[in-house]
């Protein structure tokens, strides 16, 4: 009987340790998401406020992230992602870029427009590859740039992969007023049916875009978008949509 009691106690401690470990990982992931969303703009006081943690807990979390190279703090106390994490992310991005490059090339050839490849990271879209249009007047985004979700074609295509009640959607729409958030939610429902998202002069005046998104290997959410000056986009919209729909048939998407 004593042995059985010892076993139960041991299992309870092991379960508690696992729960504690999972909580730490969740907090670390949340902290990295916040840092990635506002790189070089957050200090410890911002981190503990955004995470809803005691300052001492946030400090221990940050110290741990810095020790393993997942975060770094400059002389002014501002927090950025660490070299070790950026190296892992770069390797991941390189794999995705290599896999999707032929698809981007086919879309570029079919449309004659710029084609962008981005991944969902930290509540934003991170641009990882691009084929530029040969037109003198063209839409170009910097590789490594981050864009919001609610007003971009790739961002809205990504949001449509989540349910309306998902935290990712709620976070993306949080800066909007109620009316604007409701409009985006209605648009997301349409995107889920059509599997195509649009940005019509929303993110940048004079630039429109169409985009698709899906889940790829490793659970990454990947988006492909075609931006163009609005007048030319309207003129060639059908060709752009057809090229993107063709890309949806690629075996690169896991679901």
UniProtKB/TrEMBL annotation:
SMART domains: HTH_ICLR
A Pfam family of this chain: HTH_IclR
SUPFAM superfamilies xref list: GAF domain-like, Winged helix' DNA-binding domain
Organism: Mycolicibacterium sphagni
Domain named IclR-ED: residues: 84-255
Gene3D superfamilies, per the entry: 3.30.450.40, Winged helix-like DNA-binding domain superfamily/Winged helix DNA-binding domain (1.10.10.10)
Any Gene Ontology biological process: negative regulation of DNA-templated transcription
InterPro entries: GAF-like_dom_sf (IPR029016), HTH_MetabolicPath_Reg (IPR050707), Tscrpt_reg_IclR_C (IPR014757), Tscrpt_reg_IclR_N (IPR005471), WH-like_DNA-bd_sf (IPR036388), WH_DNA-bd_sf (IPR036390)
Listed name of the protein: IclR family transcriptional regulator
